[in-house]
Amino acid sequence: SLAAIAAECGISKGTLYYHYRSKEDILMDLVDRYLAEQMEDLDRWINDSSKDTSLNRILKYVIERNFHDAGSRFHLLYQACIGNEELRQKLLTRYQKYLELIADTIANHDPALGDEAARYISW
């Protein structure tokens, strides 16, 4: 309940209700923060000139990062699959941006591949 969440956070119910109307609102905020953090981390890593951003290393980074946070993501995917349409749409939108970032990075790294191949690899 929101009351239990407020108690666990050490804040009043009124403070929590001021920011969130439901547990689902809290979940959506957490999803937004989680996915934004993943995008920022990938973007920061890709743009770090001290990093090896070869195609193999980019793919390895993405796969390792995804396995590292698998528990949280599986819970979100489960919720999206059992009928949370708002969450499903947020995940689809965010992951599409994530795929585009990976595809753009791959295409910029190896222009000979072409955009279509880069999109395929990112998928």
Give the topology, please.
Elements (H helix, E strand, L loop, with lengths): L1 H8 L3 H7 L3 H24 L8 H14 L1 H12 L3 H25 L5 H8 L1
Taking the alpha carbons of the first and last residues, their distance comes to 38 Å
- Average per-residue pLDDT, rounded, comes to 83
CA-based shape? elongated
**Percentage of helical residues?**
over 70%
> Whole-number radius of gyration?
18 Å
Order of helices and strands: HHHHHHH
Overall structural class, as computed from helix and strand content, comes to mainly alpha
Uncertain stretches: none
β-strand number: 0
Number of helices: 7
Q: Strand-residue fraction? A: under 5%
The biggest beta sheet reads:
none
Describe the protein.
By secondary structure, the protein is mainly α. It is 80% helix and 0% strand. The chain contains 7 helices and no strands. It has helices spanning 2-9, 13-19, 23-46, 55-68, 70-81, 85-109, 115-122. The chain is elongated.
Features:
123 residues; mainly alpha; elongated; 7 helices
Précis, in short:
The chain is an all-alpha fold and 123 residues long. It is built from seven helices and no strands. The mean pLDDT is 83.
